[in-house]
Amino acid sequence: MTLDRRQILAAGLTLGAMSLFPGMSWAQARKLVFATFTGSWEEAHRDVIVPHFRKATGNADIALDPMLSVDMIAKVSAAKANPPIDVMLMDPGPRLSVIGQDLAAPFPVADSKNYQDLLPVAQLPEGPGIFFQAVGITYNPEKVKTPPTSWDDLWKPEYKGRVGITNMNSTLGTAFMVELAKTRGGGENDIEPAFAALKELQPNLGAVAPNPGALATLFQQGQIDISPGNFNAIQILRARGVPVEFAKPKTGTIAFLTTAHITKNSPNAKLAAALIESAMAPEVQTKLMQAPFYVIPTNSKVRMDGDIARMIAKDQEELKASFVFHDWSVINQNRAGWIERFNKEIKV
Amino acid sequence: MTAITAPGLAGPATAARPRIGREWTLALPLAAFFAVFFVTPLLLLVAVSLYADAEMTRFGLDQYIRFFGDTFNLAVLGSTLLLGVKVTALTLLFGYPLAWLYTRSGPRMQSALILVIILPLLTSVVVRTFAWIVILGRDGIVNNLLLSLGLAETPLRLLYTEGGLVAALVQVQMPLMVLPLITTLSRLDPNLLDASAALGAGPWRGFLKVTLPLSLPGIVAGCLLTYAASVTAFITQSLVGGGQMLFMPQYIYQQTITLHNWPFAAAISIVFMVSVMGVVMLFNLLGRASKGYVHA
Question: Among A148, A293, A320, B71, which residue has the fewest nearby CB atoms (within 10 Å)?
């Protein structure tokens, strides 16, 4: 048998194309793609939700693809007819864009075993809330001797040059500004007091981080000693031995739901629903609540314990009483203008 | 097409003549690749930038009008282009002596130097940038040194400042400047300097009249690479520059990913691209002028 150059070239190109576009080799539907968050969230979901889902579905094929909510939206809206993702995780702001742009299919509430057990605030038929995120004051206990109790503590003169914030690109940064406005007589519709307060905070500002991850790094580097911070980010730092603590402000912990959505036009809609079902299950949420993940549960059947009970809420009643939720439908309408203003006005 | 190639293949006698044969077909795969993965997306980008509203329902030049109608946007563009100039100038200032040293060293020293020069390229830009956070931080190497020497009483703000960003970018982009410089300087005939010395030129005069003009092509190439890389260095700009210093790459990211305003993001991408191309063309003109100068 002789092979000429043309045949070899053709074979080579075909092989190359097949490895570039593996979808061409299989005609059937792809495996379920769960777009989770990056970092420890991915670990938590891989270790706890995925095994439960596999067991429930007889080892269905699943792949985790970690990214930010906003990146999920960009990817799905770029390929609406054939989305590359089946299950999306959303913060409240992006959640509303997903619903607004009609990128999510409703969750089949009637067929769900766990949906009715979710706290009322998490019962959202467009995509149920599968955990809470909490934003409070984070501080370095070695440098900040008296634990802070209020957002106003960030303005104390002794923290000159040691306060960190993030800009308004992130949910964390935007939620902090809205809460600031609220504690000073404004709110979702009146951000003015927050900008005024931030101007007063400028001597204290040591850093405006580009994202929450960078903010966490700054604690590690000793660049900042106190900042608004996400409870889970703090737990990760603590686990690595960084001296950092979480404090609940007396006006309440800023809370937001993270919701799970079935992508519209997903070829795996049934499996996607099964994955969300697993994420809501009390046994899954109980496991996720414990070390090293510390994920705040939304299922009312989960009994709070450990660090979550100590630092966030001892039961669902306290959780309801201490959590402050913001109206993201109003925030989303104003956010572009706020970000533009932040770009222009906040200089260190 | 087939008719043209036949006489060309006749014999070695015609081989020296420049031929327009079928060789151009060799470039077809690359041309197709560029057409599909470079030209098409670029045209799509232009098309998206011509939508008047974020929901992409009507066409118009609104995005461009919005960009040029606000001095803030122009300031962001200006500071980005200026950042590139600062970084390029400093890289040239530090890189030139390094490249010169390399060409004058013995083989053993050369291999040590080339390792130092190339090493940054072998490390991920994210890792290098994080190293700069450690160096510039409140508790970082620079501040600790200054404090222990008594040169500062409180830690200086170095991280999230433009100075810190320029320093980090200079280090990160240094190989892009030094490598083209080494190539040009090594090709320089050492006899030329000897000749200029024999004719009475001192070392500085020799450098200014002989070495510098002859190395201009390397300088232009190095500046082009450094400039283009530093104005678009998204990772270093955001991690060392911080969340309140806004440069074009983050501005584009913010408009696309956070605000979903794709038409505006596309418009500012195109404005940015055209501006950088303008600067690059200036460099190129300089390079062409230098060639004339060298041969004169």
Answer: B71
